Amino acid sequence: MSLLKAKSSRTREKRLDTLNAWQGNVSAAVTEFSDGEPVKRIRTFSQSTQDDLLYALRLLAGIRNSVAVIHASRGCAAAGLFHQVSKGNGRWIVTNLDDRDTIMGADLKLRKAVKEVYLRYKPEVIFIVSSPIVAINNDDIQSVVEELHEELELDIVPIYVTGFASHHAVTGYDTTLHALLKYLAGRRGEHNKNNSVNLLSVAEHPDDLREVERLLSALGLELNILPDGASPAIFRKAAAARLSLSLDQDTGNYLGITLRDEYAVPYAEASRPIGINATGRWLAVAGKASGLNEAVQALHEQESGRVTKALENFSLKGVRVYLGLASATSFSVLGLVEELGGEVIGITVSRLDQLHKERLEELSARYPVLQIHVADGQPFEEANIIKRLSPDLYLGDSAHLGQIGRLGIPVVSLEETPVLGYNGVIALARRFSAALHNRTFGAALARTPLPYKESWFRRSPNWHIKKEVK
User: CA nearest 6: which of 238, 244, 291, 261?
Assistant: First the structure.
């Protein structure tokens, strides 16, 4: 059965056996995924987490010449305010569903909203983003799409997110990418093949995108970048490309496999290009798929020599590092820390699933007792682990940095720092150096106590993680 015939994508749990609650060493994680479907865990107490609606809005904010109609209450649309600033796309509205709409439905309100944004903005495409409320009142979004598509002669794309179908917010990316291909890419077999290469980039830092463009353009490749910054027409072009390359297997995997299975576009997947060696391996995958092996080798030698010279006075030797990042990013940053001479003593990742099995096996062969903590939005568990391990440096996103900093540990946020390619190595090394040498702010922050009672820290970090009973 065609993937795109379905109303929406399958959840990460069903498609990839994804875990969002787990703690143990690398060897145990390998065993979990080698013995068939891993045993699901639940949390008896969960502090916070995002949902698929937030991820869907984040992705849609990067689509050019579009408008998103968020079919929800005002609260569900709050994330649009952040994406308006961070992505520069302020064209969205919310249908502002109230109590009556929740019970009686709001099809007429949705029709009015779609017509209003069409008259006001004249976009190339309108997205209708559902919400938990719509999942309850069962509004017939599809009928609105079909009716207004004919009336306005415009692409209207429904995004069926629910907020509770999956424990993994990243499912919102899959759901959105499913809809974009289903409604914008066209039918299989009706495209004329082109010579472009799809660069699959989901919510990447702009400097990272420029760095990868620089490297692939140096190889003479014609790039078709999506979904970041893509216009609706790009998705149709993507269905006829010669190859797809992913920058992050966690976020771009569904797009890559759907283009492969539905449109016969080969999909080349490799670990994120973070670090000198990892960037070389990523380019080698691109070179092999494009018949550019010699050009890739020459480019890698030139760029790696430049980076090595720039970092000749920097080393992480003797520095014990803890990572708290998205899964694919964590595994790649671990390799970079090793390149710079440091030691990773533990990892918190957002999820573990079949996509990470090969990387886990590699780590198990070298560091079988390395501890992995799987959590998204559980800072109290991570703070407990960090307090016990007392690393010299913490690398993470911005979600928990304030709490980790209160433990007196230097922290570096990778959320707004370029990390990809050869220039990413230089940028990260400078951030690491600054954090290790400038400890005044960290010392001041450490005088502010954490919000948790000491009794919390006397419990094991996985106290609230239990095996699911069916």
Answer: 261
The total number of residues written for the chain in this structure: 470
Nearest to 404 by CA among 446, 348, 350, 359: 446
Q: Are 424 and 274 in contact (CB under 8 A)?
A: yes
Please tell me whether the overall predicted TM-score, pTM, comes out greater than 0.85 for this model: yes
Q: Classify domain 197-304 by CATH number.
A: 3.40.50.1980
pLDDT digits (tens, 9 = 90+) for 260-273: 999 999 999 899 99
The phi-psi region of residue 289 (left if phi > 0; otherwise alpha if psi is between -120 and 50; otherwise beta) is: alpha
Each domain of the chain, given as residue ranges in start order, spans: 50-166, 197-304, 313-467
CB 29 within 8 A of CB 352: yes
Furthest C-alpha separation in the chain: 67
Same fold, 197-304 and 313-467: yes
- Homologous superfamily (CATH) of 50-166 is Nitrogenase molybdenum iron protein domain (3.40.50.1980)
- In sequence order, the β-bridge partners of residue 465 are 43
**CATH assignment, 313-467:** 3.40.50.1980
In whole angstroms, what is the distance from residue 146 CA to residue 13 CA?
31
The three-point CA angle 163-9-246 to 5° equals 105
pLDDT digits (tens, 9 = 90+) for 453-464: 888 889 999 999
Nearest-CA neighbor of 227 among 175, 281, 287, 162? Answer: 175
Strand partners, 371: 25, 346
